[in-house]
Write a structure and sequence with these properties.
The chain has helices at residues 22-37, 57-71, 78-85, 99-115, 136-145, 168-181, 197-207, 210-213, 238-242, 245-263, 272-284, 291-297, 431-443, 452-471, 487-494, and strands at residues 11-17, 45-51, 88-92, 123-129, 156-160, 187-189, 221-229, 298-301, 303-304, 306-308, 311-313, 331-337, 347-353, 360-367, 387-393, 395-405, 413-423, 479-480. It is of the alpha/beta class and 503 residues long. It folds into two domains: 12-161, NAD(P)-binding Rossmann-like Domain (Rossmann fold); 194-494, Dihydrodipicolinate Reductase, domain 2 (2-Layer Sandwich). The strands form four sheets. The chain has an eight-stranded mixed β-sheet with strand order 8-12-13-7-14-15-16-17, sandwiched between helices. The chain has a six-stranded parallel β-sheet with strand order 3-2-1-4-5-6. Strand 5, helix 6 (168-181) and strand 6 (187-189) form a beta-alpha-beta unit. Helix 1 packs across helix 2 (57-71) and helix 1 packs across helix 3. The longest helix is centred in the last third of the chain and has 20 residues, at 452-471. The protein starts with 10 loop residues before the first strand and ends in a 9-residue tail after the last helix. Bound molecules: 6-O-phosphono-beta-D-glucopyranose. Residues 230, 249, 361, 428-429 line the site of 6-O-phosphono-beta-D-glucopyranose.
């Protein structure tokens, strides 16, 4: 393929470290398949999957095929599958062995030459680290030592999954290492929530609708609730979760990212940095958690045995690779304030937990009540609040609640619920998020990825709460699986005369 200048367009190769792992099979390959399906991959593109096991290309392709049958949102169409199949290659390679990177370099050069019909070995590269975090630095070092990061006339991008460090200190050390090898603009820190449809929609809802944006402040909004509740437990990830907990697993990244999009000022443009700068300011404006605020506004929980969908499920402490005395939190509820002119005085309540009664992620914006002078004076009717709910999953869309007269009784005021949401085809960790994110990596658009200073500010916030949690004796387990979480999470809002709203 020739570009306008008549030069051969460089090939693009995506190298996946962790090619036989769960993430690759469940998310990355289905995403690539669906990008092929939607004709969104570049023409001379290939994937090199790296794993430690012995496999031929064909054996590996068969594994991918089986995974696609289970996890792809589009059914397998043999023509589309063949297109993907022929550009997937497997390489057995222990990424802790530095000599393997020379071999990888040679493989990429040969493949690149083949993809561009023998015209040069230089290619655009995406290094996707779909491995456990303890391997991040080793791999980046291997890439550095073998000169795999520097390309003269093409680009090299690094994609890194969470967790990005386990606290501010380790995150800074990791970031320093990455920056020795890749410039910030080529580092794509994945937060898959940012690839979800309704998370991308937050800015559109706010900045394309005068009816919302003109009311979007402490003057009109009573409180904002961000909830990510899961029915699933930790499953086979006990070992990882023990050193993570809900604060590191969900709050430091997904929830803080959502909060920053909900609370940010309008950016000066839609440029990546303009948006990220406004998001950063929100995280930096979160009120400091003093000892008093920590004591009053933080609730940690851990699930005990319980019933989900009619079946008894084990307590967290009974899960595989979890200590029987574990003090890891599987639930967090927080009240926080964003102390700037727009939000001072309007509380944000956030909540996330595993093994909850329902799986639901949503953002509830509760508007302030009107004076009870006309319609609600007699107290016969309760004034239901205006609510705007951004439904992330399993339903995707928007819900709005407002008051009208009841046509039947001619006198009652009733709340009308306008639900413009629909059930998502893939309730749960949607592969669509990865499709969008991989597509953006290919295009070089890092808007939906976290910039280092956002990660840094999130860790500063999360570290204080994690440190506090570590010192407390929470008397776990304090909620049964299949329930709505610890009682204290309800008391947190009841104290303010509010309640969690599940719409
Ligand atoms: C991941 C967490 O980042 O997000 C998991 O590590 C969690 O513990 C998952 O289950 C939730 O993602 P989703 O897309 O299913 O809501």
């Amino acid at each position: 393929m020739k570009t306008n200048s008549g030069l051969q367009k460089p090939a693009t190769i995506m190298v996946i470290f962790g090619g036989t792992g769960d993430l690759t099979h469940r998310k990355l390959m289905p995403a690539l398949y669906n990008l092929v399906y939607d004709k969104l991959l570049p023409e001379n593109f290939a994937v090199v999957s790296i794993g430690r096991r012995d496999k031929t290309d064909d054996q590996y392709r068969n594994d991918v095929y089986e995974a696609l049958k289970k996890y792809s949102r589009n059914k397998i169409d043999e023509t589309q599958w063949n297109k993907l199949k022929n550009i997937i290659f497997y390489m057995k390679f222990d990424f802790t062995d530095m000599s393997g990177y020379e071999q990888l370099k040679k493989t990429l050069e040969d493949l690149s030459s083949k993809l561009s019909n023998g015209c040069g070995g230089s290619c655009n590269r995406i290094y996707y680290l779909a491995v456990a975090p303890e391997h991040f630095e080793t791999i980046v070092q291997g890439i550095q030592l073998s000169g795999l990061a520097s390309n003269h006339d093409s680009w090299a991008r690094l994609v890194i999954e969470k967790p990005f460090g386990k606290d501010l200190k380790t995150a800074m050390a990791l970031n320093k290492k990455l920056l020795e090898v890749f410039p910030e603009k080529n580092i794509y820190r994945i937060d898959h929530y940012l690839g979800k449809e309704m998370i991308q929609n937050i800015m559109v809802l706010r900045f394309c609708n005068s009816v919302f944006e003109s009311l979007w402040s402490n003057k009109f909004i009573d409180n904002i609730q961000i909830s990510i509740c899961e029915k699933a437990g930790v499953g086979t990830r006990g070992e990882y979760y023990e050193s993570s907990g809900a604060m590191r697993d969900m709050v430091q990244n997904h929830i803080i990212q959502i909060l920053s999009l909900v609370a940010m000022e309008p950016p000066v443009s839609l440029d990546t940095d303009a948006i990220r700068t406004e998001k950063l300011k929100v995280i930096q404006a979160i009120e400091d958690f003093t000892p008093d605020i920590l004591r009053d506004n933080v609730v940690f929980g851990q699930y005990g045995r319980g019933i989900i969908d009619g079946e008894t499920v084990p307590a967290y402490r009974e899960e595989k690779k979890v200590s029987p005395n574990s003090t890891t939190e599987t639930f967090v509820a927080l009240k926080l304030h964003v102390n700037n002119f727009r939000w001072a005085g309007t509380p944000f309540y956030i909540r996330t937990g595993k093994r909850m009664a329902i799986a639901s992620s949503e953002i509830v914006i509760q508007f302030k009540p009107l004076p009870d002078i006309l319609y609600f004076k007699d107290r016969l009717h309760l004034q239901e609040p205006n609510l705007l709910v951004i439904k992330i999953q399993p339903n995707v869309g928007v819900f709005f609640q407002f008051n009208t007269r009841n046509f039947n009784s001619h006198k009652d005021i009733v709340s009308t619920k306008m639900d413009a949401s629909q059930i998502n085809r893939d309730a749960g960790n949607t592969p669509e998020a990865y499709e969008r994110l991989i597509y953006d990596i290919l295009r070089g658009d890092s808007t939906l990825f976290s910039r280092w200073d956002e990660v840094e500010a999130s860790w500063k916030f999360a570290d204080r709460i994690i440190e506090y949690g570590g010192k407390m004796n929470f008397n776990f387990p304090n909620y049964d699986a299949g329930t709505t979480g610890p009682v204290k999470a309800f008391e947190l809002l009841a104290r303010d005369g509010r309640k969690w709203l599940n719409i």
